[in-house]
Amino acid sequence: MAGHPEDRAPALPAAVLFDHDGTLVDTEPLWAVAKRAVAARHGTTWHEADDLATLGRTVPESARLMLERGADGTVEGLTAELGREVAAALTGEVPFLPGVRALLDELAAAGVPGAVVTNALTVVARGTAAGAPEVLREVVSQEDVEHPKPHPEPYLLAARRLGVDPARCVAVEDSPTGAASAAAAGMPVVVVPGDVPVTPAPGLHLVDAHTDVTLDLLRSLLPPA
């Protein structure tokens, strides 16, 4: 005899979709250093307030801000230069944040696929995905979409590339921009601590630390199969 619906175990996520900077890896300081260096080379400045103002936004938006302040060059040129700076700093072992490697191992053992969904650049995100290819099977960056975060397009595209229902996915984010994107795509969102607080809202599940994100937590956010 079948059990009651409430007796059924929570289903596995169809996929887990991760933001990149500040969620999977500690790259926000690297972007800050890169932006200061590139701005200085092109005749302008970059400050901590600019880091916070552009958190979760696309790299071309940072490039445009530099140009508005009188930097020489183009959006495309400055964007590429920023990407090269950060990619060069990420050579070697991937600097996964505490708890992330353990979570990726759990997902691999359970056969749950994942993707990196980011407003950063492909050249940077692919280096991180290569650190866990058994899970991080796709990368969707701002270069892949017409409408980057906070629009839902990046998360919807990632689910489509993995061949899964967005409503059966769980997203992991650290910024208001990214959380809004994933929530608009119709998936529950785990929000880890970031440089800019995320306001509690329906569909967002705020945790105290990256190490709080486990497969059991992700399963609990989905209805029973």
Automatic annotation (TrEMBL):
GO terms for molecular function: hydrolase activity. The keyword Hydrolase applies. InterPro entries: HAD-like_sf (IPR036412), HAD-SF_hydro_IA (IPR006439), HAD_sf (IPR023214), PGP-like_dom2 (IPR023198). It comes from the Bacteria. Pfam families: Hydrolase. Keywords: Hydrolase. Transmembrane segments: none annotated. This is Hydrolase.
